[in-house]
Amino acid sequence: MARTSETTSAKDATTKKRGKRNPDGTKKPGRLKQMLEVFKYTQEVDRSTLPLMLLAVVGAIVVGVVLTLLIFGSPWYGIFMGLAVGVLIAMMILARKAERAAFGRIKGQTGAALAAMQSIRRGWNVEEEPVQIDPRSQKMLFRASGRAGIAVVAEDSSGISMKLLEKERRSIRRVLQHDNVPVHQIVVGDGEGEVPLHKLPAHMQRMKKQLTKQEAAAVSKRLTALHRSLRQQVPKGVDPMRSRPNRKAMRGR
Question: Model pTM greater than 0.85?
C-alpha cells in the first residue's frame, strides 16, 4: 500500500510539472513574465503606455495623500491607498492599450473582424464561420445575433463587400419574414460611417437591446438553420476558404 501511494504521488507530481509546460514541452512563462511581455510589446507599439501608467500611479498617490491629510492629518495611509488604486488604474490602462495594440497587429488581415467580434464576452452569439464568401476576392461577411438584433459585419467598404451585405440581408429577411428583428450592417474601417477595428466590440455592446432573451434565442436558432442550409450547398471536400475559379473554363478552353 505504501509503495502504491508513493507511485500515485510521483505520478501526481509529474502531471503537475507537465501541466506547467506547453504542448511542445517548453516551460510556460509565469504570470509576471507574461505581463512583462505584454507591457514590452504594447510600449513598442504605443509609446504613451508607460507615461500614462506612471501618471495614474502618481496622480492616485497625490489624491490619496491630500484626502488623508484633510481627514486624518497624516499622509501615510493616503500613500498606501493611492498606490493600490494607482496600480489598479495602471493595469486597466495597460489592458486597454494592449487590446488596441493587438487589434492593430491584425488590422487589414482576413478574419480580423471575426477576431474582434469573438472578444465580446457576452450579449452576442457570434458565428464561428463566415456567412458569405466571394470565391474570387476572398471577401467575407461575419454575423452575430443577440438582444440588439442581428449584426452583419463586412471587413471593408468595397463594392464586393457591399453586394455581400445586401445578399445576406435578403437571406435573413427570407428566414425572418414576419419578425420585426433589426439587422445592423457594419463596415469595419476608418472612413466616414465605418467602425474602426479596435472599436468594433464596444460599438456592438452599446447597441440598444430590442429583443427579449427568448426572442433572441429563437432568432439564433433560425439563423443556425439558415447557416446550415448554406453549408449544404457547398460540395463535400471543398473548402470555401480556399476555393478559386477555374480560369480555363472562364476563357472557354
Answer: no
